Amino acid sequence: MTTHRTGRCLCDAVSYTASIEQPHTGACHCQMCRRWSGGPFMAIDAGTSVVWEGEDNIATYRSSEWAERGFCKTCGSNLFYRLVQSGEVYLATGTLDDQDGIAFTSQVFIDEKPDFYSFAQQTRTMTGPEIFALYGATPED
Fold it and tell me: What's the CATH number where 56 sits?
């Protein structure tokens, strides 16, 4: 069942509405996500359904050949991770206005997770090489 969710950055300069088909969030433990977010990046798949308000306040950083990261130019809030080829957006789960009813179901780049934290929930896990194989990419991308 598709739900419509809204969200925003810390300063309200950017807001969005997204149609979420599956209210599931996952954690990415890769080094880039940890540097970008200060810990694992928690994201929810919004497909290509995101409608932005204040889009002129969004800056993007092309972090690899296949993805870019978006953030608010004003307050610096991390907003999304986007696959360049498909335009698929993974919203930062913490930016959602209503986070109820979202299940924590997956962890990726589990092989890069530092040992100073772990989550109590049992989730599906994938390593970096498994992710690259799934998307047909290489670590150099």
Answer: 2.170.150.70
